[in-house]
Structure formats: structure tokens, C-alpha cells
Write a structure and sequence with these properties.
single chain; 21 helices; acetylation; AMP-bd_C_sf; ATP-binding; ligase; ANL_N_sf
Length: 676
């Protein structure tokens, strides 16, 4: 990009130098069995057919009462879907499958210790257990429709069981990722004004049985300081009949779920016939600064959307064994471990521990043992597995027909390893783009219709109509390859309804920037602003360039960090890369590039130089890193996400803040010393 061109682009445009990749086509075998092969779906879900097109998704569910109005736009942008309809999410994920599938496995629970037996929970057993927990929540806790409950639970079958028990009663659940601290849990208890906290005594992570109950004590104490006193703390036992925490129970406040349940055996609770627009759950975004946002997701619209996208984008059939290797503590786990797959009567795998424990072959052994044929994970996990055991997938006899990637853009080099080694060249890949707020996929190829393109999310899924704006609200020409701020032109059933107790923030953060008329009740005037940068290539596929605040403005050139990271991963020795903006007196900001190498490799000047050369070759001299720092490991969250804010603080000689919740806090000082 020339300097002349730079002066013409708006601030929203990002300098893009990525090369377009070649297409990879789905196999005839996959197409022959796929749920969606009809090209006409895009005409049926066109803007001309909106919003009635989403009846197709709603018809995948069982309704007590059909809706009167598909979309209510009377109070924009607080969209309401399937008004007048009555439905229950628990019934749709459990009860309705019993006639045909009661003996089929609903949940395969894989404990982290390999010597522990895998548990197979059938739909009939799931029905029994969900009913008993519902009876306990209603009878012992006095919970009713509209009450909130905070769950702070690990990846165990009791988590989806508890979620579905809440949904059965119309109780709004708020699950907090198990790796979060007691204080973070308290913040969510206070914001949601939860009546109870449901947790677990202990769980396995990296070979250790961690004391989890201690966080509940902190959460209770901190929430009380902020004016919310939990009525009860319910503690599931990791090993029924044995208390595995060193933290003692508090009499009158803490209760062992497994013991209390004995009084509710064989109880049956009729599902509450919920108005479609009533909330199903709160999902708090895990911002490191500021108050966490409670994204409120509705019942009918959300469930219809995750069922539809699970069937047509993930190609889930009832006979499939499906494994989403995410955590239920995030939206991916809610939508695509629990509600979407179970609504379709799939068998969903829940794995307790680290994917690389005790070694990088663990996921492929699990896939082999359970005959998993759909695999769903994040680029973070893919990079970690590629780093720890690049040849491990070839050692095991499993066959995926379909693989999903989710959570962030995947670099083409990593995509190819995922396809060739993990997918054995057989599996289709859907590279999905969406967010906590969105409920389900926004952009992806439809696996039997579109060819795949490494590093590219694909077009909008049926019924989703993206548009790219510059900073001033001008539409960037479609298919132009010019980047800007991606928005969605139309509402969709899976999107969140509001931010809990903060409707003004909801409007300002997601709709105000590109709203054409604040007084309008026409949905066309209220595009959803995703806060991500993107471009649309000539073929109509979207490439997501990351959060807008991750863009580095170097002497007037707006560079997407993902692009620089992708270039560095072309060097064979590099396992992971992270780019952060560093202050520069002349250029304003320059990229600092942190890389970790594959196991057994030592940092060298040769590797550093080749990484730098790759960035210059792929992007240009403007993207030359100020420094390439080869680190022993990246600072990461417990879920494996690289904490770029910590690296940014190191690069700019700032305080990195509280790093105690990281999976590897000790690496921060080590990197700080290396940078010097």
C-alpha cells in the first residue's frame, strides 16, 4: 500500500496484505450424507424473505403454543422473537427424545484421569437426573421462574444437568468458567442478584485434583460485601459419597447436592411453559477491565438458532458422536455442547481436563475410543496440539467427517495442519465467526455447499447479512477486498436481548455507532456493530481481522495483528505467535512480535531473522517487528487463550496488573527479563 493510498482510506480501513488461499472442496462422500445441500437456502433466507425465513429453524423445535409474531421490532434494538409462543428448552433437549432415543447416549463424560471409566449418560438417565435436580431446586431452594442462580462448575456431566434443571423451571442460570477466581464469581453473583451458588468440591486439571470449593467461600464473602447474600451454596461431589475438598463446609449455608438429592429421587417436574422471549441464561463476557457484561439470551429464539446452526453448519445427525472441546463456561459450550446438540438428540462429549494431558495424543485416543466423527475446537487448542504433538493424530484410528474452528481467526498454516493431520485430509472444516453476544454462528461456509478457504470464515450463514462500514458510516464496496468494521444488517433469533440491568450500554456499544435513525422502528436502520475488523474478498467470503482495538496504526498504516501472526507461523519452528502494539516516538505504534517455539527447539538468531523476513515478505517493510522475542511460553488463561494485554504491558513497560489467575503466572517475569 503506497503512502498516497494511505491518505485516502478512512480510519476504519485496515491495511491488508494477506494473499488469498486456494480452495479445498468437500468430498462427494460428505455431500451425500449432509443435512444441507440445497443452494436455494440462500434465496429462502434472503433479506426479501426476512424475518419469516427463521420459521425453518423454529420448526426444528417442539412448541406448546405456536407464536403469533415472528419478530417484534416495536422497541429497537431490543428485538423479540416468536412472540406469543410457549416453549421449554429442557423439554426440547431431553423429554421429546425419549420416544425414539431413550437408550441412546446423550452425554459421554470423559474424566481427565485415564484410569477412570468413561461415563455414558443416556437420554433416559438424563431425563431422570434433570427432573430430580429440578425438584431439589424448587423444593429445597424455593427457586421459581425468573430467579437467577450462579453456577461455578467444571466440565462434568452435573453441569449440563444443572443447566437443564434450571431451564425446566424457568430459572435463569449464569455459569461462570471454572478457572475464574472467587472474586470474579462474586462480581457475577452481585450483578445477577443470584439467590444460590452451585459449585463442585474438586475437579481434575493437568493431573491435579484441584480444590474448587475454596473459591465458593471467597465468592460468598465478596458478594456479601457488595450487598448480595447467597441463600445457599450447593456443592456437587466429584466422587459421589466422598468429599474431595480441603475447604470445610459451612453449616446452614453449604449443602452437598448428592446428599440432598436422596430426598428427591424419582420426582418428576413438569417443564414450565415459558414465553419464547423470556430469558434462558446470562453469559458474562470475561473482560479484564471494567464491569463484566451480562449478555441476556432468550429462550425460543436462542434455542431455534443453535438447533438450526448445529444441524446445518455442524451437520449434526442423531447418530453422530459429536465433541466440542470447548468449556461450557463459555458461550461456545452453552450453544454447541449443551443446547444445540442435545436439541438434535446428538451424543455430546464432555471432557474434564487439559487436551494435552498426559500427552498430546489424548484427544485422538478419546476420538478413537468413542468413535467421534464431528470435532469442534478453537485455534488456540489447535496450535497447542500442533506444538506439543504435530504427528500424534497419525497414530490413532479415528475418522472425523467434520471439524469446526471457533473463537478467533485461524492462520492458514495452522488450518492446513488441522485439515491434513487431524482431519486426515477427509474432514470438512467450517471456520466460524461469532461472539458471546451472538448466540451462534454468523459467518461460515455451509460445509456441503461451499468450498473451504484456509484462514477465511466464508460468507454469512443463511439468514445473516453482513455489511462493512468505514468509520463514517459509508459502506465499503462489497467484494472489494477493502477492510473496515463488520456489522450485521438484520437481527437474528440467536442474538442477545440486552445487557443485564444495563440497556443503555447495550445500545451504545452495539448499535449506536451505525444507527441511521434513533427514532426509527425499522430494523434496517439498526445494524449490529461487532467491533471486529474484516474484509470481503471478491468471492464473497469474509476474512475476520480481529478486534478493532487490536489494530496497530503504524505511520498511518492500520495493520491487523492476525496478519502478522499468521506470517510468522509460516516458519516451521514457530508454534505460537502474538503481536502487540508498542509505543514509538516516530511512528506512533510499532508491532512487537512474541513467538514460542515447538518443543525441543532452542531460540536462535537464525530463527529470529527468518521470522522477521517472513513478516516483511508476506506483508511489507511497514510491518517489520520492532523486536522478535522468543519466549518459553505465552502468558495464558486457564482456557489456553494468550493474554495479549499482559504482553502489551511488558512491551510498553507498564504494570501487567493481576496475573495470579493465569495458568502460568511465573512466565510473566521471565518474559519481562528476556525483553530487556
Amino acid at each position: 500500500m503506497s503512502q498516497d493510498r494511505t491518505t485516502e482510506v478512512s480510519e476504519a480501513e485496515i491495511a491488508v496484505h494477506w494473499q488469498e488461499e486456494d480452495y479445498v472442496k468437500p468430498s462427494e462422500k460428505f455431500i451425500a450424507q449432509a443435512n444441507l445441500t440445497d443452494q436455494a437456502v440462500f434465496e429462502r433466507f434472503s433479506l426479501k424473505k426476512f424475518p419469516n425465513c427463521f420459521k425453518e429453524y423454529a420448526d426444528l423445535l417442539d412448541w406448546y403454543k405456536p407464536w403469533d409474531v415472528i419478530l417484534d421490532t416495536s422497541n429497537p434494538p431490543f428485538w423479540k422473537w416468536f412472540i406469543g409462543g410457549r416453549i421449554n428448552a429442557s423439554y426440547n433437549c431431553v423429554d421429546r427424545h425419549l420416544a425414539k432415543h431413550k437408550n441412546k447416549t446423550a452425554i459421554h463424560f470423559v474424566p481427565e484421569p485415564e484410569h477412570d471409566a468413561i461415563q455414558h449418560v443416556t437420554y433416559q438417565e438424563l431425563y431422570v437426573r434433570v427432573n430430580e435436580v429440578s425438584a431439589l431446586l424448587r423444593g429445597f431452594c424455593g427457586l421459581k421462574k425468573g430467579d437467577r442462580v450462579t453456577l461455578h462448575m467444571p466440565m462434568v456431566p452435573e453441569l449440563p444437568i444443572t443447566m437443564l434443571a434450571c431451564a425446566r423451571l424457568g430459572v435463569i442460570h449464569s455459569q461462570v468458567f471454572s478457572g475464574f477466581s472467587g472474586k470474579a464469581t462474586a462480581d457475577r453473583v452481585v450483578d445477577s442478584e443470584s439467590r444460590a451458588l452451585i459449585t463442585m468440591d474438586a475437579y481434575y486439571r493437568g493431573g491435579q485434583l484441584l480444590d474448587h470449593k475454596e473459591k465458593a467461600d471467597i465468592a460468598f464473602t465478596e458478594a456479601k460485601k457488595d450487598g448480595v447474600t447467597l441463600e445457599k451454596v450447593l456443592v456437587w461431589q466429584r466422587y459421589p459419597g466422598r468429599y474431595s475438598s480441603k475447604t470445610p463446609l459451612v453449616e446452614g449455608r453449604d449443602f452437598i447436592m448428592n446428599e440432598v438429592l436422596s430426598g428427591y429421587r424419582h420426582r418428576r417436574i413438569d417443564p414450565v411453559k415459558m414465553p419464547a422471549e423470556d430469558p434462558l441464561f446470562l453469559m458474562y463476557t470475561s473482560g479484564t477491565t471494567g464491569k463484566p457484561k451480562g449478555c441476556q439470551h432468550g429462550t425460543g429464539g436462542y434455542l431455534a438458532y443453535v438447533a438450526g446452526t448445529s444441524k446445518y453448519i455442524q451437520d449434526i445427525h442423531p447418530e453422530d458422536v459429536y465433541w466440542c472441546m470447548a468449556d461450557i463456561g463459555w458461550i461456545t459450550g452453552h450453544s454447541y455442547i449443551v443446547y444445540g446438540p442435545l436439541a438434535l438428540a446428538a451424543s455430546s462429549v464432555v471432557y474434564e481436563g487439559l487436551p494435552t494431558h498426559p500427552d498430546a495424543g489424548r484427544p485422538w485416543r478419546i476420538a478413537q475410543e468413542l468413535d467421534v466423527n464431528i470435532f469442534h475446537t478453537s485455534p488456540t487448542a489447535i496450535r497447542a496440539l500442533r506444538r506439543a504433538g504435530p504427528d500424534e493424530p497419525t497414530k490413532y484410528h479415528y475418522h472425523f467427517k467434520h471439524m469446526t474452528t471457533v473463537g478467533e481467526p485461524i492462520e492458514p498454516a495452522v488450518w492446513r495442519w488441522y485439515h491434513d493431520l487431524v482431519g486426515k485430509g477427509e474432514a470438512v472444516i467450517v471456520d466460524t465467526w461469532w461472539q458471546t453476544e451472538n448466540g451462534g454462528f454468523l459467518c461460515s461456509t455451509v460445509p456441503a455447499i461451499h468450498p473451504m478457504k484456509p484462514g477465511s470464515a466464508g460468507p454469512g450463514v443463511p439468514g445473516i447479512h453482513p455489511i462493512i462500514y468505514d468509520e463514517d458510516g459509508n459502506e465499503i464496496p462489497p467484494r472489494s477486498g477493502r477492510a473496515g468494521n463488520i456489522c450485521i444488517q438484520n437481527p437474528w433469533p440467536g442474538t442477545f436481548q440486552t445487557i443485564w440491568k444495563n440497556p443503555d450500554r447495550y445500545v451504545e456499544q452495539y448499535y449506536a455507532k451505525y444507527c441511521k435513525n434513533r427514532k426509527s422502528r425499522d430494523w434496517r436502520d439498526w445494524p449490529y456493530f461487532a467491533n471486529d475488523g474484516a474484509l470481503q474478498a471478491a468471492d464473497g467470503y469474509y476474512r475476520i481481522l480481529g478486534r478493532i482495538d487490536d489494530v496497530i496504526n503504524v505511520a498511518g498504516h492500520r495493520l491487523g495483528t492476525k496478519e502478522i501472526e499468521s506470517a510468522s507461523l509460516l516458519i516451521e519452528e514457530v508454534a505460537e505467535a502474538a503481536v502487540v502494539p508498542a509505543r514509538d516516538e516516530i511512528k506512533g505504534r510499532v508491532p512487537d512480535l512474541y513467538v514460542s517455539l515447538k518443543p525441543g527447539l532452542a531460540p536462535s538468531e537464525d530463527i529470529r531473522r527468518r521470522v522477521e523476513d517472513a513478516v516483511i515478505r508476506e506483508i511489507g517493510p511497514i510491518a517489520r517487528p520492532r523486536r522478535v522475542v522468543m519466549v518459553p511460553d505465552m502468558p495464558k488463561t486457564r482456557s489456553g487463550k494468550i493474554m495479549r494485554r499482559v504482553l502489551r504491558a511488558i512491551s510498553n513497560d507498564e504494570d501487567a496488573g493481576d496475573v495470579s489467575t493465569l495458568a502460568n503466572p511465573e512466565v510473566v517475569d521471565e518474559i519481562r527479563r528476556m525483553k530487556v
